[in-house]
Amino acid sequence: MIQTSFSLRLGLYSLLLVFSFGSIAQGLDEPGLGVPSLTPEERLLIELPADSELRILDVSEDRFRVLIQHANQSTPEGALMLLADPEAGPSWLEQTHSLRTYMAEFGWFTLALDLPARQHLIVDTDAESRYVNQITERIRAAKIEIDRENIETLVVIALGRSAGWATDFLRQQPDMAHLIMIDPQPHHPNQWSALIEGMSALTEKAVIDIYPARLQRLPDIRIRANQAKRSDLVRYHSQPMKGEYAGWKLDMPWLNRQVRGAIKTFITQADASIEAKRAMQEPPREQLPPGRR
To answer: Is residue 254 within a helix (H) or strand (E), and if so which, with residue range?
Structure first.
């Protein structure tokens, strides 16, 4: 796999965007021409904090973007990989913005990844195989970017339909990262088996399942919770969203607090407790007289 990347500070990137928009609008004074409308993605790129970083990754023939927000401290608490819902389209920036910037303020290095939408019917096996490979390679490339930061703790936060892709990827390396699923959906329409099977492999890491408190979602959460019991996922935790969920917004303070609290309780504190117990169970080192080491 050949991968190249470059990064732009978004303050400069915004300036370039405005510059290009100026060339589009250079004839605004001419009769019959109106102000060009910006896409949601273009508007959000302009509004992003100046300390955000845009990186363009190239993997084989696939070129895509990731957004980086560095932690506000010299040694990060850990790294978060935010996987946007593949069906989000340009809204992937809006979907990941609040958590990405909020968690960076509390010491976490965050990377948000845009996943492509499926452009074919699932019965097209060749196209489906290429699509699966594209998703996998994007997640792997994002993981490589995070590895450059030399951060020990990694948490994957999967939004919506990216949950199935996250479990697919993590089941291959179940000790690689903790997983938080927010409003999880299967990546194949109406097929929960792949998500549940992938989740079942994550026996050593925390799996946090945050779901909208809606009656129609209760059967789904019950299936996942029962599967977690059958698979002996001792670090599986499910909890309803603690705010009114009506789609993704730029500012979601209640969800930010809930995710941060779940990470602190079920990941960082739990990891510290596990390490302390492991240290106590290690056999004592043999005490040798001086000169016999």
So the answer is: helix 253-263
Beta strand pairing call for 53-59 and 62-69: antiparallel
In Å, what is the CA distance from 137 to each residue of 62, 145, 155?
9, 12, 18
Task: Decide: 64 and 112 in contact? Cβ < 8 Å.
Answer: no
pLDDT digits (tens, 9 = 90+) for 63-108: 898 999 999 999 999 999 999 999 988 888 889 999 999 999 999 9
Q: Where are the domains of the chain?
A: 48-118+125-278
Distance CA 88, CA 91 (A): 5
Look at the domain 48-118+125-278 and name its fold. Rossmann fold (3.40.50)
**Strand partners for 67:** 54, 112
Three-state DSSP at 28 gives coil
Question: What is the C-alpha to C-alpha distance for residues 224 and 214, in angstroms, rounded to an integer?
Answer: 16
Spatial strand order in the sheet of 154-159: 3-9, 53-59, 62-69, 108-113, 78-83, 154-159, 178-182, 207-211, 236-240
Query: Do 229 and 200 contact (CB within 8 A), yes or no?
Result: no
7: tokens are 């990064």
CA 39, CA 45: separation in Å to the nearest integer?
10
Asked if residue 145 lies in contact with residue 114, where contact means CB atoms within 8 angstroms, the answer is no
Q: For residues 183 and 241, give the distance between their C-alpha atoms in angstroms, rounded to a whole number.
A: 9
Pairing of strands 62-69, 108-113: antiparallel
Query: Which residue type sits at 32?
Result: G
Give the end-to-end CA distance of the chain in Å, rounded to a whole number: 46
Is residue 266 within 8 Å of residue 272, measured between CB atoms?
no
CA dist., res. 181 & res. 183, Å (int) = 6
Q: What is the pTM of this model?
A: 0.82
Q: How confident is the model over 150-175, as pLDDT tens digits?
A: 999 999 999 999 999 999 899 988 88
